[in-house]
Amino acid sequence: MKALDELTFDNRFALLGDVFSTQVLPEPIAEPRLVVASQSAMALLDLDPAQAELPIFAELFSGQKLWQDADPRAMVYSGHQFGSYNPRLGDGRGLLLGEVLNDAGEHWDLHLKGAGPTPYSRMGDGRAVLRSSIREFLASEALHALGIPTSRALCVVGSSTPVWRETRENAAMLLRLAQSHIRFGHFEYFYYTRQPEQQQLLIDHVLTLHYPECQDAEQPYLAMYRTIVERNAELIARWQAYGFCHGVMNTDNMSILGITFDFGPYAFLDDFDANFICNHSDDRGRYSYSNQVPIAHWNLSALAQALTPFIEVEALKETLELFLPLYKAHYLDLMRRRLGLTTAEDDDLALVETLLQRMQTGAVDYTLFFRKLGERPVEEALKVVRDDFIDLAGFDRWAEDYLARCQREPENANGRRERMHAVNPLYILRNYLAQRAIEAAEAGDYSEVRRLYQVLCTPFDEQVGMERYAERPPEWGKHLEISCSS
Predict the structure, then answer these.
(1) The whole model's pTM is what?
(2) Given 91, 109, 252, 388, which residue is catalytic?
(3) If residue 22 lies in a helix (H) or strand (E), which one and from where to where?
(4) 61, 371, 405, 417: which has the highest count of C-beta atoms within 10 A?
(5) DSSP structure string for 178-224
(6) Catalytic-residue membership of 252
């Protein structure tokens, strides 16, 4: 394991030049203090966990100190925001400090969020507040533990630096890790500003460093786009299967790697609601839970448009048409597993859709239903979960079909509980749990943030003494208003 001063930097994105990013030094925050750190994220950099206890740790990730080999840069990009094109966005409060090469030969971007103003801050102060930093940290690590592709969060550092949003708050910084911070919006920026040479440099950069397996294809650029479509189909299937709502699926928030990226007003479903809107600012429901699939398809079409100078339009269209069937296949596979099914039958999608309709009518807790369904033998479990439904006759009809379906499974009943618990979490990042942790942290107590983080690291395993984290939320906890404000 390494110390912080032993990291090896290999800043490949910076080599693209000043057209792609602007050198900016982070602006320090006062009295830095570690709020929470992820040991598993530190391991990606081969960092010794004990490094988090040293003063230098908070100093580096609060902008007060900087590695000699770091090359902090604010990236420029554009994007479609709520369907409207914004010609120039960029890192308005974050900096790509550099790329660290670990002992396994992997490159990891160190991206410091809340590092102060940049040329792309758009009249903002370039700061992040404590609550939004904690929310992104928890979401990043919770999604990773669930097996959902995501950027990672190494740590949150708090401070006494004041910032003003709706009220006075304290600034914080979050260190985010990803193997690339390139977004759909990067390609859109160079396409719409008519810089084909720079756009080709960007495409070749992504192809060579992140999709090397596509280089030997007959049409490498098309092969790369197809892989991006495939990765996003699986990503969105996992979001939908686990009830995750991103909230701001703008093209500048879509990673070229097909990972969950840029957390804002996200939420996991409490009661199942296909029309759930987690972003208080999304008054038209563009990014509702049920719209995430068509919006992902729309975003991929925006990326395809930006690639038209280099890939034939018909080939792009044909590739884009793969998204929906790939999504459906991944989603159905995940939902079969959540229902304890190991084989495939033609009517399985109807079984899933009918269940969700019954859950919607009865406002059934999405996470706890699947956990309880796997807790006991099928007949007993159905009796237990039945109490959560309002339309009992409708549930009974579904339960009869589900029971018959389970009886056609070749697997023996003894493995059912273990199999279902391995894919159905007991603990999920509910908004009210995050809110309680944030309120404690804002009062100077970081113990609840750290405890919640540890619980979410092993969401499928029952943890002694942590029963309250698996409870159904109180009514007030289901109606918290989360906006993009950070």
Answers:
(1) 0.96
(2) 252
(3) strand 21-23
(4) 61
(5) ES---BHHHHHHHHHTT-HHHHHHHHHHHHHHH-GGGTTSSSHHHHH
(6) yes
